[in-house]
## 1
Amino acid sequence: MKTFSNLFVLLVVLSWTTTRLAPVHAQQDKFSVKPDIVYGHKDGMALTYDVITPTKNAKGIGLIFMVSGGWVSTWIPAEQMASTLFAPLLNEGYTILPVRHGSSPKYVVPEIVSDVKLALKHIAENASEHQINKDKLGVFGFSAGGHLSLILGTQTNDVGDAASSPRVAAVAAVFPPTDLGPYVAIDNPIREQFPALKFDPKKADQFSPLKHVSKDDAPTFLIHGDKDELVPIWHSEKIEQELKANNVPTEFVVIKDAGHGFDGEGNKRLYAGMLAWFEKHLK
């Protein structure tokens, strides 16, 4: 089975197939960057996110990106991400907030989930400073990042006082694991491949978005390849069924013959689908 701990790097490369972009330095007049905003600390280390804002036609709408592949949060300069992976979204006026969490192998999924929930809270509390609307926050991510996006979409909107708790208004999840139960089983070798899964299997449901679907969840866009061997398509199929059963707005796009990663045409469908979804639900 292939390892996708460096999935985020792969996606940056693949994003070039969706847009014909000038070099990074030539793109920087199109956006501004507030780097390394600290949203918390753990073990003496800072937890950070960036704020990347379009220079022109900014909508005042923030899209939070889960920087996570295999639950590893790879650091890449914000300027590079903005000029490649995020370019189609920035060009449409969205402000992008890449969130980094404590990474595997030191931290496991329950600790990582705590990080991204803390990041969401910090972003919502400081939304006016970032010139975004706290009531129109979108979240998106790929693979493990898709899992974390769905965690926020299914576990935040029904917690606490709706007037003060951070809320997610829309989610886009790309080939996301939605049920961690099969992965965290003690006898499953994937636990060794992805150390973030080395937590008590009895807690799997607590950190599986599929098990937390309810009627107040965020509208959710799903996209998955039908030949994905690492995260089989049933993960998206099952959560789509649960979302629809709870009358949560949902769209599911299947990329035929695609595995855990898309070709140029698949990426075009990915960006087009995400943009349409966020435009519909974050107006």
## 2
Amino acid sequence: MRFAKYQGTGNDFVMVSDLDDSLVLTPSLVRSLCDRRFGIGADGVIRVAPSSRAHFFMDYANADGSPSEMCGNGIRCLAVFARAEGLTSDDVLEVDTRSGVKTVTIEGDSVRVDIGPPVFEPSEIPVKLEGAGPDALQTKLELDEEVYEAAVLSMGNPHAVLFVEDANSAPVTTLGPRLEEHPAFPNKANIEFVAVESAGRITMRVWERGSRETLACGTGACAGAVAARLLRGTDAKVTVGLRGGDLEIEWAGSTIDERPVFMTGTAVEVFTGEIGL
């Protein structure tokens, strides 16, 4: 099987073109491809498949083999990969995902994505809360007699944002996996640890659902920026500093003003090759 390895802000993916729709991404296949010692090594696998309503369908699976609704860094990589493979010559692509069709624009060395508006309705995130109000932005999660306050929302996939003083020292690898599988999240959740540095910059580490800690998470950066704007008064355009680099996030909406979130960042080919299945 021919493949390409791509990374977006350090978030890396195995990319496969499958426009004849013949490859099935079984969990075991995905896990073997993503294995960093016995496989290619990646945070996930993206199969570029046909779509009846867009240029392509992004069939994305996390490193543990579980399917995901959306991947912000991955969709940028898909656009650059599709151009490099000659699958399209367009600068603006419509990409179908499990959370709807997203518009992706290639702008020189950067790729800009219309992620769509954030979702605040608890049942649509989904998050299970007692006496849930119109949103879950101040959710209290109980865990082993401790209570953690999180801003819970969806960017096509579920996120819980925890504000911390210092993202570098946050308990990402210990608290992250426990909150990922918290009973409040029926589909599990991505967990972001966000520190507000200024009105125009936040820093973040993320524990990704199904992929462990990654160097970056595009939808997580969007969730962090939205939560920071609503709860910490940051600007409509912020730079999100991640371990793999920076992403630019723009959102001028509110909980009652539905506007899309825009994400801009790079997508880079690492190498190409062939692997036996």
## 3
Amino acid sequence: MAHENEYHDAMIATLELAWGEGFMAPGGKGNVDRMVAGLDIAGKSVLDIGCGLGGPAFVLAADHGATVTGTDLEAPLVARANAAARAKGLAGRVSFRVVEAGPMAFGDASFDIVFSSGAFTQIDDKEGMFAEVFRVLEPGGWFTVYDWLKAPGGYSDAMREWFRLEGLTYAMRTLEEHEALLRETGFVDVTVEDRSDWYRRVVREEYGKMKGEWRAPMVDRIGRAEADRFVENWRAMVVVCESGEMRQGYSRGRKPL
């Protein structure tokens, strides 16, 4: 089944206004730096799953010295990422390609590091993708993930309302489930970190700016109706973050030698 693109122009414009040019997950460059802190990635090959517009890959290449291959299901995002790579003079060190859901078209032990920021939250078959990550990693290689997660139990009406306003497909798991999946897949040196308090504070600030200083730029970029919709979207996101139902977390594991 062909993938149906979900990231329309208004959403992309809003995400870049909130999180910075090229970024489709919170935290921008600082979040990327945190994800690879303590890892030696200079000169290493990195696979970025769910690369989006390419912001994290550019940080990994320009600031950390990696060679990056980014993959995404959405062709318009990949086209924009490749154009940005050329504009930044990084086309020799960063490349992006469109992929289909399911097994990856890379050989065993193809990458030193697999990186993913805010993408696994939309992957339903996490068991299969964790296994694929394990397969394409070199022995001794690291898998590092930042993701949008949920609290234990089913989705509340407030969470479903946020999903409706987002217009995106979500398949959230808990941080504890991510940890268990890493271990069950065969990763060692597994660590997880709950950063829900960080984004709970940040999303309040973002919502305030949506109603204030970002309001006029949003209207200029996407029109009043879409700007109103995204203000409501952020309000709904504040609700699920402050209730503790929507969580943010980091997961990391190493493929054994």
## 4
Amino acid sequence: MPKVGIIYNDVKPVAHQIAFEWQAKLVALGFEVNLATGIGGILGYSTPGRPLCHTPIDSLVPPGFDTSMVFVLVLGGDGTVLSACRQLAALGVPLLAVNTGHMGFLTETYLNQLPQAMEQVLAGDYQTEERAMLSVQLFQQNRLVWEALCLNEMVLHREPLTSMCHFEVAIGSHSPVDIAADGIIISTPTGSTAYSLSAGGPVITPGVPVTQLIPICPHSLASRGLVFPDQERVIIHAANPDPLVMTVDGNAGCYVMPEDRVSTCRSPYQAQFIRLRSPEFFQVLREKLGWGLPHIAKPTSVELP
């Protein structure tokens, strides 16, 4: 019996309803169906009294989900998709993301198009697009104390974001550099259209094998964004007497104490997205962010009545 999964945002009633409707439909078609909520991919925030809230990467796979699954249907917004990617990364199972939220930048289709999309997927008429992920790790001395998978970005900053921080950043075997800023972002190409874009970083097409470092409000004209090969490991020391906060994809984080170090590198795991047509990244940029829309010339003179 073929096996599929459904991950949904249980906070949204419509996603909950559609999840159980499609579970019944797929069972009637002869599939074994396992359900899970996207909350399992949220790693949780630590507190000052408990600076670490650590769930190992491989422990995020939902019960009943395994590598034999044909695909996983994801119902929610971008936050649910990010969580699902962490839950499924270790399995290498493709996901069909359906937007029940607002922006839906990472989703492939909408609820009103779901019947046609599922018909196409069940017929095997689709492509799979791989997206690079980052492995983010926190070390105290030489001991790994926290880790997470990242599809968009890792952000390291002071809490609250009201004063400047000092960072020492080493990329690969290159000499360390000093950055004074409100924080720093380490982003994948997928994340280049998220926080790093708002912080002044460039848009990078998904297939380019690079990582980018973006200082947040740097206190120097010389501290600007940097793009480098994604095979380079990044080591960050924060030269501050107070704890900093590290967040991953906006929904997981921990405190980084003085003398700790943060390490990021490309993960061996990749997110697998089902595409119902050939991926057209520029079209998504136009639809979601208004990029490249034609300008309408204004008249050179206006005749008054």
